[in-house]
Amino acid sequence: MIANQPDNLKRPRMARSMTAILGERTIELLIRLCGVSAIVFVFGIFLFVLREGAPLIDKLDWSRVLFSQEWYPTSKGNVRYGVGALIVGTLSVTGLAMLFAVPFGLGAAVFVSEFSTGKVKETLKIIIEMLAAIPSIVWGFIGLTVMNRLIQEYLPAPVGLNLLNGAILLALMSVPIIVSIGEDALKAVPDSYREAAMAMGATRWQTVYRVLFPAARNGLLAAALLGVGRAIGETMAVLMATGHAVNIPRSIFDPIRTLTATIAAELGETAVGSDHYRMLFLIGVLLFSITFVVNLLADLAVRGVRKQ
Amino acid sequence: MSASPFTVTPLVRRNMRRELAARIVLGAMVAAMVLPLLAIIAYLAVKGAPLISLKFLTTNPTHGMREGGIWSALLGTIYLVVIALAVSAPIGVLCAVYLNEYAKDNWLTRIINLAVVNLAGVPSIVHALFGLGAFVLFAGIGRSILAASLTLAIMTLPVIIASTKEALAAVPMSFREACWNVGASRWQTIWSIVLPNSLSGILTGVILQVSRTAGETAPIMFTGAVFFKKIQSGTLFAYSLTDQCMALSMHLYTVTTQVTNAPEPLPYAIALVLLGAVLAVNAASIAVRSCLRSRKKW
Amino acid sequence: MRRIQEAPQNGDPGKFALPSSNRCRSASIASAVASWLRPSSALLPEMVGRDWKARLWVAIALLLVLGGAGCSQSTARTDGSSGKPVVIQNIGSDTMVNLAQAWAEEYQNVEPNISVEVSGGGSGLGIAALINGTADIANSSRHIEPEEEAAVAEHSGSKPREFLVGFDALSIYVHKDNPITSISLEELHEIYAEGGKIDRWSQLGITNIPRARTDRIIRVSRQNNSGTYHYFREVVCGKKGDFKLGSLDMNGSKDVVELVSHTPGAIGYSGLGYNTRNVKMIPVSRKKGEKAVLPSIETTLDKSYPISRPMFMYTPGEPPAHVRRYIDWILSPAGQKIVELTGYIPLNLAEDKR
């Protein structure tokens, strides 16, 4: 404490008014609250979805539920909740979509990042952003009307709404994510790598193939995983374009049904609290867990990038 | 040997051929994505254009939604987007401010970052389930614009957090240090220097979410959007927060799957309006971004 | 991530401060509060100057709260006494949604201050809305189940009242180039029901559908929230039977017809009112070998067409006066004319005396 002060300093002046200090304290408290809000919401989502579905968990024979094809929730005689075919449907459409999207996405990322410059680069980035902006319902509409007829006419498919249709749409939807994150990953590789390669006489493609891919490996993996996450979570496009048939596909021209589409199609009619309702929430929990794992893997991959 | 470092040997020729091949293949990959996009837009435009007019946009649907316009759906979408962003933008910006300016590098911060990434990856139908379980049932709001907007707000939150974080991180540290040098507190620095300078990035992020919110169907299907609702035309306040509403995305779904004998251009026209609105908003955000970027002082 | 730990805390100048603000923080706050409470303090004029921003924010917040409270009056749902439109919520069957929409629009001309809001979603959704109390009238293309009846009674206090408002004939649609001429209920059972043996068109004797890629019968069905789905299952698969897995389950009655019209090897079922020029309706017989009948008003009313069903409207208990008036109008010749115009089967008014 400062003692023996001269008179004019005896009543010290505040640098700022009381209201300003209190206001700032409040805002900082608010900021901290908002900071943890993300955790609150993620837990909240998991908890609320689990809460609605929980009463049914004990009543089900889970080995049969997970591995049986027979999805008959509204049967009069024999109610069966087998999600096996739905899981296969989700995995198959995502897998096929990634088979298209990852090469195309990474290729486009490389092209945009390494082989194009200036105006071309800007234009391409804008166009890819536009591709990302198309709403999923519009994709579903295109799948139902345009792709349906195209596949029916030009490919040996018995019906146009099938696995291939859904996979093409999902691929077009996930490519922008893969391109933007992949491009970030490639940009993060220091220029010294490129310069060193050029000094050794490598062509641009050789630089990409032998230097940048290994260096940006983790980021590219994260890009692919985030694309997978997007594809698994897609609802409306696959609802309209895959034919919504409970079926284990034997060829890419077979119609399938995904977990997300099942929830979307059936939730509306169920009475709140019924077994069917709870089962749909449990499917939601399953979906959440799958995407949680995928996102966790992507995060670990990106963490690997930072460590480099 | 008379070969200089610059003679073109067969090895070099082979590498150049490979380079050219790679360029062509990669370019073809890009074209394979760009061309479908342009083809889709062109197809929708050609098939849906006959119906588009100002009258189409401002009259309510009539005759079983086969005739008339899409005003109630358009207004519903506007309500949903505005309320959702009004809720999620402040929370998202403040969360990003916390993560970038206040948070220490400890386990809590890592968990928050993980939570943001996970929130971004949650499927839209799980958001719908959450909205149904939490807002419609648990909080008792019932199916309404409010519940649907809150669900959409939670959906757009992580992306706003991520883009705001980037925008804040782009402000050079020297700006902050200058503020501290003159005695400003942390919040004063943020409010008067950091936020205004990162405004372009924040605005871009928020505007981009407009297009995403307008296009989502699944989260609103069970929390507030309906097949059909009659509202007064000509006024912007036709919906109240506790009403259910129509929405463009939901309208496209119902017209495509449930409305019979609709004139063929109708679903294409709705898709075109939705797509057009989304692309226009995206273009606006790009324009804002480049305009504000040119004004940057560093 | 930036480390901003050296930034000054709230009110605390930190190491970058100028020397004159070097004092104990709590003492300064205490004296500030004390001087704030003493209106004659010398600090007041300055604080007024610095506080205007805080006051402005408070004023804005108050305005928003008041404005929000003012704007959030929902549209009135009185019973017409204040002159605002009365709303009847009509939710349910997708099969009936076009019909319900047509009724609602025509009724606007009859009673302009009553507004009927129609939603689809399926018979199940309509009855669920009745149970939850969010619908005044539920449209259903199937009978209400005993459990649902009990649930409505529990929620609203009285059993639901059923009104028969018309009939719907379910047609069997195939691609317009498909040469099949008729089908029997038994064959439909073998095609659609679980355990049924017919998977290929050749088993039905059809071998030459142009442009069909395979011989497989592509079954088009509806999603399980649909009354059409339930009814067809009852008639074709048996009271406790189930469908065969692998049918393409479409969202609306219109979807089914659209898909069948583009897919050469497809077969599907949908309401008579959804017929278009691009598909073919095939006559159905009860047993193989019997006369096969095309669905129409006559064949439905004289029960010779085997797949027709009544359409119902349910209210939770006895309906209030304005709802009763609406339903009476629907049952009158004016309302039934609309049934016919939209492709459904009107009640045979000479017989039906509800």
Condensed summary:
Helices cover 72% and strands 1% of the residues of chain B. Chain B has 298 residues and is mostly helical.
Q: How does this model look, in words?
A:
Chain A has 308 residues and is mostly helical. Chain A folds into two domains: 2-48, no CATH class; 71-307, MetI-like (MetI-like fold), CATH 1.10.3720. In chain A, 71% of the residues lie in helices and 1% in strands. Chain A has twelve helices and two strands. In chain A, helix 11 runs antiparallel to helix 12 (275-307). The mean pLDDT of chain A is 87. By secondary structure, chain B is an all-alpha fold. Chain B folds into two domains: 11-51; 54-295, MetI-like (MetI-like fold, Orthogonal Bundle). Chain B contains eleven helices and two strands. Chain B has helices at residues 10-48, 54-58, 71-102, 107-121, 124-138, 145-169, 173-181, 186-215, 218-221, 248-257, 265-294, and strands at residues 61-62, 67-68. In chain B, strands 1-2 form a two-stranded antiparallel sheet. In chain B, helix 3 packs across helix 10 and helix 7 (173-181) runs antiparallel to helix 8. The longest helix of chain B has 39 residues, at 10-48. Chain C is α/β, with parallel strands linked by helices. Chain C is 37% helix and 18% strand. Chain C has helices at 25-37, 44-71, 97-110, 123-132, 146-156, 185-192, 227-237, 253-262, 297-301, 321-331, 333-341; strands at residues 86-92, 114-119, 137-140, 161-175, 183-184, 218-222, 248-250, 266-271, 279-282, 284-285, 308-315. In chain C, strands 1, 2, 3, 4, 6, 7, 8, 9 and 11 form a nine-stranded mixed beta sheet that branches. In chain C, helix 3 links the parallel strand 1 and strand 2 (114-119). The radius of gyration of chain C is 33 Å and the shape is globular.
Shape category of chain A: flat
Strand/helix succession of chain B:
HHEEHHHHHHHHH
Shape of chain B: globular
End-to-end separation of chain A in angstroms reads 51 Å
- Could you name the CATH class of the largest domain in chain B? Mainly Alpha
- Strand portion of chain A, in percent? under 5%
Poorly predicted segments of chain B: none
